[in-house]
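Design job #97: recover the sequence.
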């Protein structure tokens, strides 16, 4: 059964968007590194709080800066295992980066010199966005390497899917302000491209499912997607989430242990897929996030959006 509290994403984004924000912005995938062309010029700001601004990457140079941020968080701070190329470049990169949109939070009060000696605002947060029509041109979504999402997509032929991934924020900026700004940008992006469903992998640190049994069981018993929105982990990678009976899970402890990103998704009203996947490279156990726009928690999203709009430029 669907949850109540449906809302209009168009009205929501209009409410939280900065004054004068063009509501239709052309957005396509960035060119590959080999092309060597900075052909995109996304000059529109998607929101601003003080010195922090959210917008799309405007060049491959900025994508590389986001990749360096991802390396710092995933490989230096967390426990991801780098291959030789990743170690050499000190960038977290994969083929999907070439055709995804990259949402950035930049801090105009923290200027860093680039290789040309020019001072540029520091990139302190990023989200990777992949629209369905772009994914279809390049072999599908990244998420399909872990979860069988194609059945879900095929069952909703009139809906437009957006994959969210590679989310990270520099440690000093992991606060309400930065997260609000990222979601402000995502809502604006949803409006631009008339997105109906968001999905993607969310990670819980650790590769031993038994050590995070409480978190997995909590998600299974309390946030599992209804049948019509359910997608499962690939059979060869499937890890059972129902590791404890519902009465054996302490909800407060489980919620406290869950990563902030997963808790944020749950507050928005996201569903969780069937089964988890262990990602040994990144040292995590991944769960599938499914967020139909019409099913999101309208009270929370309106509060979240209204809060961000107070700081919009």
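Job complete. Output follows.
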């Amino acid at each position: 059964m669907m949850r109540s509290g449906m809302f209009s994403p168009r009205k929501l984004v209009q409410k939280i968007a900065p004054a004068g924000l063009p509501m239709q912005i052309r957005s396509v995938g960035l060119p590959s590194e080999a092309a060597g062309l900075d052909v995109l010029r996304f000059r529109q700001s998607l929101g601003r709080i003080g010195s922090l601004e959210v917008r799309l990457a405007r060049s491959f140079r900025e994508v590389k800066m986001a990749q360096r941020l991802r390396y710092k968080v995933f490989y230096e701070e967390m426990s991801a295992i780098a291959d030789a190329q990743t170690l050499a470049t000190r960038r977290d990169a994969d083929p999907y980066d070439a055709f995804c949109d990259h949402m950035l939070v930049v801090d105009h009060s923290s200027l860093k010199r680039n290789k040309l000696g020019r001072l540029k605002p520091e990139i302190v947060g990023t989200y990777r966005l992949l629209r369905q029509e772009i994914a279809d041109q390049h072999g599908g979504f990244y998420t399909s390497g872990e979860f069988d999402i194609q059945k879900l997509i095929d069952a909703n032929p009139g809906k437009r899917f957006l994959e969210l991934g590679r989310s990270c924020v520099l440690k000093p900026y992991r606060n309400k302000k930065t997260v609000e700004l990222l979601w402000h940008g995502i809502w604006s992006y949803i409006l631009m491209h008339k997105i109906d469903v968001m999905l993607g992998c969310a990670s819980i640190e650790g590769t031993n499912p038994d050590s995070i049994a409480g978190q997995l069981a909590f998600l299974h018993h309390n946030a599992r997607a209804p049948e019509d929105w359910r997608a499962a982990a690939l059979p060869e990678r499937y890890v059972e989430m129902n590791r404890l009976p519902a009465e054996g899970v302490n909800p407060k402890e489980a919620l406290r242990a869950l990563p902030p990103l997963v808790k944020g998704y749950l507050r928005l009203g996201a569903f969780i897929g069937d089964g988890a996947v262990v990602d040994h490279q990144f040292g995590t156990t991944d769960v599938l996030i499914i967020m139909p726009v019409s099913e999101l928690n309208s009270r929370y999203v309106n509060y979240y959006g209204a809060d961000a709009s107070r700081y919009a430029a």
